[in-house]
Design goal:
Layout (H helix, E strand, L loop, with lengths): L5 E6 L2 E10 L3 E11 L22 H8 L8 H4 L2 H4 L5 E6 L1 E2 L2 H9 L10 E2 L7 H19 L4 H26 L19 E13 L2
Antiparallel strand pairs: 1-2, 2-3, 3-7, 4-7, 5-6
Helix pairs in contact: 4-6, 5-6
The chain binds flavin-adenine dinucleotide (FAD).
């Protein structure tokens, strides 16, 4: 970790990531991420209809999956220890992309209902730039309304839609690449062409490791 505060290993299509947030002589503050593609209907960790409030409800199968990881080197072996993880605060996210059609946005806009940011174009947490795109929308829409009022919003949609589509498309390619098995060729690692893709992410922020 000489040049970075982030280290990562891949096991097949799963990513194990550790970030060092802070270091003092006494302790490290680290966070970790475990992410992989959804395995579809038979995947016990894929819960597309769970409420947001259940992000802290971690299925037992997660700990079994972590426990089955083989040949982890340090510090991955230490951090991704299923027994230790049971006592940590772990969050479970479903990473989705969304792109609402331009015609739908315009139809609702004509009725005076306007959307922006994740409500129109959501990108996965990993490999996405959702926050950057959202800030740009907020500033752009405010400028548009200050200049033309809400009547300018339909035109604003026209000018932004290409950027939104490009952002979602690029984020889908990026998450597919991140979760691709190492042997895949770059040309064949992008299986997504549709509007929606779902990947899983387990996340822990600020786990402190006391140095002994
Ligand atoms: C764990 C995590 C990590 C992320 N990391 C990154 C990153 O590293 N880089 C990046 O670019 N993006 C990242 N993102 C994505 C980024 O946070 C979003 O793209 C961005 O916040 C979208 O902004 P938004 O305003 O559309 O939605 P939000 O930020 O979700 O804001 C929506 C707000 O509406 C409120 N709300 C919802 N329903 C109602 C209601 N009925 N009444 C009143 N209020 C309501 C919510 O409480 C919330 O405050 C991450 C997201 C998550 C979840």
């Amino acid at each position: 970790m000489k040049d970075s505060n982030v280290i990562e290993v891949k096991q097949k299509d799963s990513i194990l990531n550790i970030s060092v947030n802070e270091q003092t002589p006494e302790q490290f503050s680290v966070s970790w991420v475990y992410s992989r593609p959804s395995r579809g209907a038979s995947d016990a960790l894929h819960k597309p209809n769970r409420p947001l409030s259940s992000a802290t409800a971690i299925p037992a199968e997660f700990y079994q999956e972590i426990g089955a990881l083989e040949d982890l080197s340090q510090p991955f072996k230490e951090i991704f220890n299923a027994n230790k993880l049971r006592s940590e605060r772990v969050l479970h996210w479903l990473m989705r992309t969304i792109l609402v059609s331009l015609s739908e946005l315009q139809e609702l806009g004509r009725e005076g209902v306007f959307f922006m940011e994740d409500a129109v174009h959501a990108e996965p947490i990993i490999g996405g730039n959702g926050a950057n795109a959202a800030i740009r929308d907020g500033v752009g829409l405010a400028e548009c309304i200050s200049e033309d009022g809400t009547t300018g919003v339909l035109k604003w949609y026209d000018t932004q839609y290409g950027r939104w589509k490009e952002g979602v498309d690029e984020s889908e390619k990026m998450i597919a690449k991140v979760h691709s098995e190492p042997t895949y060729l770059p040309e064949v690692i992008y299986p997504f062409s549709g509007i929606e893709t779902e990947e899983l992410l387990f996340w822990n922020r600020k786990q402190s490791v006391v140095l002994t």
